[in-house]
Write a structure and sequence with these properties.
- The chain is α+β, with helices and mostly antiparallel strands.
- It has one domain (2-91).
- The chain has 3 helices and 5 strands.
- It has a 3-stranded mixed β-sheet. It has a two-stranded antiparallel sheet with strand order 1-2.
- It is globular.
């Protein structure tokens, strides 16, 4: 997926599970890494969350409390779902 003109890879890695996380965004490597074993809906939610993190990082916004990132993720996800946007392309290349 492209975020601010950068191609971000999305992949799964058990190391994320080992760290007790659901996902991480590495803006330097341009990748979003998800924990293994999540449902399709969980993966989409985490990808949206990490996309918000990537946008904030590219904008240089690092003082925002994490709870506001979670609020933005939830609102964006709800708006897309209510408006019938197909989010399955976010899972491209991942085992569903």
């Amino acid at each position: 997926m492209r975020i601010f003109g950068y191609e971000y890879a999305v992949r799964e890695d058990v190391e994320i599970n080992n760290r007790g996380l659901q996902g991480i965004c590495d803006s330097d490597k341009h990748e979003i890494v998800l924990a293994v074993g999540m449902s399709k809906q969980q993966k989409i939610s985490v990808i949206i969350h990490e996309m918000v993190e990537a946008v904030l990082d590219h904008l240089g916004i690092d003082e925002l409390e994490h709870r506001w990132v979670m609020v933005m993720e939830t609102v964006i996800h709800m708006i897309l779902i209510v408006n019938g946007v197909d989010l399955s392309p976010l899972l491209k290349g991942l085992d569903e």
